[in-house]
Every structure is written in structure tokens, then in C-alpha cells.
Amino acid sequence: MDMQVLRSDATADTELSGTRLDLLSLARALRSGRETLPLNAAADPFPYSRALSTIESTRTSGDLVISLSTDSHALTFSGGSEELESLASTLIGFAEDGDDSAHLHVEYVPGHEYLSPNSEPLVIALTGGEGGARRRRSHPV
What we know:
Blueprint: E1 4-7, E2 14-18, H1 20-32, E3 34-38, E4 50-51, E5 54-59, E6 65-68, E7 74-79, H2 81-97, E8 102-106, E9 122-126, E10 137-140
Parallel strand pairs: 2-9, 5-7, 8-10
Antiparallel strand pairs: 1-2, 1-4, 3-5, 6-7, 8-9
Helix pairs in contact: 1-2
């Protein structure tokens, strides 16, 4: 798996990047309700501060909360089954239809259908064959 989650401690920006297959694997993990996925933490995180080591998903109840674990080494997704399914469906659509220069923003705005106001903003980017995410067009979620 080539998926990475990079975090800027200075700006609190978080970017999840991966291939189409990586994003489909993440969608399956969200649907399962309880899973831990290892990440590629070996690469240089520049311009970010660090690379996280895992993604954790947990089925709870209520709106989806995207956050960092208490030790700040994992990106966590927790929420009700419908809310996890909503993000999983978004990821599948993005993996199937997004081009290699696309990215999407997953962030709370008032009235958001499945995200909690306590969620961290997250940018999700497709990576091409060279492994680098190229950003030009944005798909807000």
C-alpha cells in the first residue's frame, strides 16, 4: 500500500494521498467499521512536518469525526454506519472518476450531512504512477 497521511504541525493541515486502489481499500475499511490500515511512513514528508503510521476506523454512532489519535500517529475515522458509508461512497466515486491531478476537501461546514463540527479538515489526493500527488482541481465534499 502506497497510501500516506502527512501532517503539518505548524498549520494543522492533513493530507491523505494514495492510488485508486488505496482509496478503494480505505473505503472497504470504513465500511467494515473497525479496521487499522498501515501507511507508508518511510517517505520524506516535506513540505509537511511528519508522516502518520496508521489509519483507524471505528463504528460508533452519530456524525463522522475525523481526528488524530491521542498519540498523533494515526488518522482516525469514527462515526455511525451511515456516516462511514457516506464517506466510503465519496471515496469510491473519487477513486473511479477523479483524474490524477484531482483532490478533494473533506471538511465540516454548517449543515454538513455527515461530518461532525469536531472533525479535522482533510485533503484527499490521488497519486499517479510516480507516487506524487498533483493538484489542480478540487472537489469539495
